[in-house]
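STRUCTURE:
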């Protein structure tokens, strides 16, 4: 009996294909690294504005002060100084050194003497409440010839020396012979309560 042919060996089953391996990650360069966050200095944070472009027009320099405010302050300062000067002038009068200040009295008259002693001046309050000032004195011709008597000026001043009242008095006799005198008696009413001192001189021409 012929020998049986041996059966062919079974073909091996194909092995399942393996899944492809993922490609290796690309090499990382410094340029691919994420940029580090930049934090602004707090000292300059107030100058940073996201809404403004760096290409916007800007003036060559920024004024450090507001001109309108400076002019306002200067005007206010000038007004204070001017009001102070006006108040001082009204209170004390113009100083004698000012070129436009007129002298209170005229120059002395040669040969004529004014005599108005302070103790002879009469200052008092009347029963009706008003204040009265009585001027009492005399003018004497001390020269050796007749002299014409000009108008007398009376200046009443307050406690701080400010002028509060002026009055003109014409002597009863206008021409005085050598050695002759003329009495001057005048009532000034009403006068200011602050009039505490009187000065006498010749009226300026």
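SEQUENCE:
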């Amino acid at each position: 009996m012929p020998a049986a042919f041996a059966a062919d060996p079974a073909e091996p089953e194909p092995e399942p294909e393996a899944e492809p391996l993922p490609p290796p990650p690309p090499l990382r360069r410094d340029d691919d690294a994420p940029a580090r966050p930049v934090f602004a200095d707090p000292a300059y944070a107030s100058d940073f504005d996201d809404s403004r472009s760096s290409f916007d027009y800007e003036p060559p320099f920024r004024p450090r002060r507001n001109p309108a405010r400076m002019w306002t302050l200067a005007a206010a300062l000038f007004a204070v100084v001017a009001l102070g000067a006006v108040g001082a002038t009204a209170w004390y009068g113009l100083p004698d050194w000012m070129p436009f200040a007129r002298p209170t009295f005229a120059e002395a008259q040669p040969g004529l003497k004014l005599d108005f002693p302070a103790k002879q001046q009469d200052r008092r309050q009347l029963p009706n409440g008003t204040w009265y000032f009585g001027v009492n004195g005399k003018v004497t011709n001390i020269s050796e010839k007749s002299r014409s008597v000009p108008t007398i000026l009376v200046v009443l001043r307050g406690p701080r020396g400010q002028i509060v009242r002026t009055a003109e008095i014409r002597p009863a006799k206008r021409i005085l012979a050598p050695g002759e005198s003329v009495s001057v008696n005048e009532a000034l009413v009403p006068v200011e309560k602050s009039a505490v001192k009187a000065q006498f001189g010749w009226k300026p021409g």
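REMARK: The longest strand covers residues 131-141.
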